[in-house]
Design a protein that fits this description.
Largest sheet: 4 strands, antiparallel
Radius of gyration: 27 Å
Number of domains: 3
Strand content: 15-25%
Helix content: 25-40%
Strand order of the largest sheet: 1-2-3-4
Order of helices and strands: EEEEHHHHEEHEEHHHHH
Number of strands: 8
Shape: elongated
């Protein structure tokens, strides 16, 4: 099996020094120097995927010094690293698999916590402002599920009267279901679909009748009756 030379390359807190052997599975074993001054021997593949990020000092810091290994902030940090570095992790295809990376500074949990701060409330999770950007201080925030849903890559954005929102946000404002608004858009232009609003049961019938049918439902189609 041919192994690549990673001498001098840095992975998290580790820098590859030299290859020292072969593991029983066939993987290359390397000696790594840690930023703390320590050393460790591990598989090159473990360093590449983020499975091993330090000589052990990182584990000591996050478990002994911080005592936050079970905190929401630590779980967000660990999940972020897994999605971007481990091909076997859930969601890899949407993150690491399409080139999303974690900045070098955030290989350290302390730096991540210092930059992001404690999670303000339980209904927030980490979110990237630019979905095509990396996990880094300038592109991340604590956001609600609704904010993250509005920030999805596959969202449909509609502009009406100078305002741009997602289809779901317009549906909520119009008090109809997203599916209902989607059906409108398949039949009518955006201006008609969004301008029709919602005919409230409290709206007087005369008021509804006074509004052109084209604004509520789009152009009126002639109906054909069959003679009996």
């Amino acid at each position: 099996m041919k192994h690549s030379d990673i001498c001098g390359q840095t992975f998290g807190r580790l820098t590859a020094v030299r290859r020292v052997g072969t593991y029983k599975s066939g993987g290359a074993l390397w000696l790594f120097a840690c930023v703390c001054g320590g050393e460790t021997i591990t598989l090159a593949s473990h360093a590449r995927t983020g499975h091993t990020r330090s000589c052990g000092c990182l584990w000591n810091e996050t478990h002994t010094i911080h005592g936050l290994s079970h905190s929401a902030e630590y779980q967000a940090w660990a999940g972020m690293l897994a999605r971007c570095n481990d091909p076997s992790a859930r969601g890899w295809d949407r993150y690491g698999g399409r080139g999303i990376r974690v900045c070098e500074r955030w290989a350290s949990f302390e730096n991540f916590l210092a930059d992001m701060g404690a999670r303000p409330s339980a209904d927030l999770s980490i979110d990237r402002v630019n979905n095509n950007g990396n996990y880094e201080p300038s592109n991340c925030r604590w956001a609600t599920t609704e904010q993250q849903s509005s920030n999805r890559r596959d969202n449909v954005h509609l502009t009406f009267q100078g305002r741009t929102q997602t289809l779901s946000q317009w549906a909520r404002e119009l008090q109809i279901s997203p599916a209902g608004l989607h059906r409108r858009l398949k039949r009518h232009p955006v201006e008609v679909a969004l301008g029709a609003g919602k005919a409230s049961q409290n709206t007087p019938v005369a008021a509804r009748a006074a509004k052109p049918a084209a604004l509520w439902f789009g152009p009126v189609r002639p109906m054909l009756r069959h003679a009996v």
